[in-house]
Amino acid sequence: MGPQAATARDRHEDVTEERSAPSKRDAILDAARRVFLEAGYGAASMDAIAREAGVSKQTIYAHFGAKDALFGAIMVARADHFLEPLPEAVGDAPDVAAALDGLSRRYLEVLLAPEAVARFRVVMAESGRFPELAEVFYRSGPRRAADRLAAYLAALDAGGVLRVPDPEMAAGQFLGALRGDIFIRYLLGLGEPPTEADIDRTVAHAVGAFLGAHRAR
Amino acid sequence: MGPQAATARDRHEDVTEERSAPSKRDAILDAARRVFLEAGYGAASMDAIAREAGVSKQTIYAHFGAKDALFGAIMVARADHFLEPLPEAVGDAPDVAAALDGLSRRYLEVLLAPEAVARFRVVMAESGRFPELAEVFYRSGPRRAADRLAAYLAALDAGGVLRVPDPEMAAGQFLGALRGDIFIRYLLGLGEPPTEADIDRTVAHAVGAFLGAHRAR
DNA sequence: GTCTATAAAAGGATAGAC
DNA sequence: GTCTATCCTTTTATAGAC
User: Which residues, other chains included, contact A53 with Cβ-Cβ below 8 Å and sequence gap of 6+?
Assistant: First the structure.
């Protein structure tokens, strides 16, 4: 093997191909993600995952051992990416209204992405069987978003821009207002996804109400 | 049979007992409700329901025909009771703050009842398989609560008490703020249920913010 | 590592007696 | 209407060849 190959062999010792071909392991993970998120844990069969990945069932068991281990690998691995694009929007905005507006749009964008909704639904349904998974999901997703917003609101209060005596509560309720009815409908699989105009109205109303409620005296 | 028996025999023709003993049918419905809500549709077995009800599996099939029919009977039957105690709180209250306060407490009380949370979770998880069930649940639960509140807010706006130009949106976002973080945590099965003090703080904050945002000029 | 074939168990639904 | 006993399909998991 060539000299630069050293950086790429963090998993295998005896690989012969120099280009890291899409490994069966990754194919399995990808297929499992799709099948689990679409069907839920119980209704997803290992046969379906094997078929989707183009491998045999035994190959899956050789890699992951059992169904619940595979499920855990999928759900935890992707939990980090949830709501990751949120923080940048807070610090750079010229004024408060624009900052809240931008943050709200990113939040709804992430929250209403089909994969995020499916993930939420599955984690929720299986929270009894996988409690630690629900915990990780909560902390890396909803909790993190609320903490970031709370920190921003606390800074606004300290700077005298707004009056926010209880930033944690205010952050939680603001994000709750943003979710409003839309998210429930989405989780229940009802009706059409919200249009751009719906988003505009929702964000404008939530931000306006928040600024009205917390304006400095 | 006696003359008064006529009113009670809307289902049976050949009953011999005069007191309506807890029928097997009701025992099945009750057991099915418990098992379905605890385990979810997929993980709930007909064997478990039969055991819990103290009857044989065949008795269940004689009454309901199939698993999905039994599930539908359970979930739809109880959907009416969801949020039923809400409307009274609106009209009688002396002032707006007290009305919103009372309504908020009832809403959270109903929403955080263990059975309501379990129902929400199950309907959500099975919304793909039973779309019409999700629709009925939504309309009789979340939607109804939001509509009632919106009508009240529209009346306040018309009376000049508050300024609420978009009552539907305001109602949805107020209820969303009320759910805030608590409901998500609850759905994910995390941590302790909220204490009385938590409820007090949550309601006070949401009502205070709402009044601040929508006060008449 | 990967495949084909199979074991072992669970669960939805039905047959037939009473 | 109700029970016991059974069928048949699906599904997780494993054995053994290559």
Answer: A24, A27, A28, A30, A31, A32, A60
* CATH superfamily ID and name for A1-65: Homeodomain-like (1.10.10.60)
Which strand C bases fall within 7 angstroms of a protein CB?
Answer: 1-5, 10-16
Of A128, A134, A173, the CB nearest to B205: A173
pLDDT tens for each residue of A19-35? 455 789 999 999 999 99
Look up the CATH superfamily of B67-217.
Answer: Tetracycline Repressor, domain 2 (1.10.357.10)
Tokens (6 digits) for A35: 């099948």
- Tokens encoding B164: 């609420």
Question: What are the backbone angles phi and psi of residue A162, rounded to the nearest 5°?
Answer: -130, 170
A24 CB closer than 7 A to any strand C atom? yes
Q: Do A209 and B213 touch (CB under 8 A)?
A: yes
Q: Which residues of B in 35-74 have their CB below 7 Å from strand D's atoms?
A: 54-59, 62-63
For residue B16, the model assigns a pLDDT of: 40
* Spans of all domains in chain A: 1-65, 67-217
pTM: 0.89
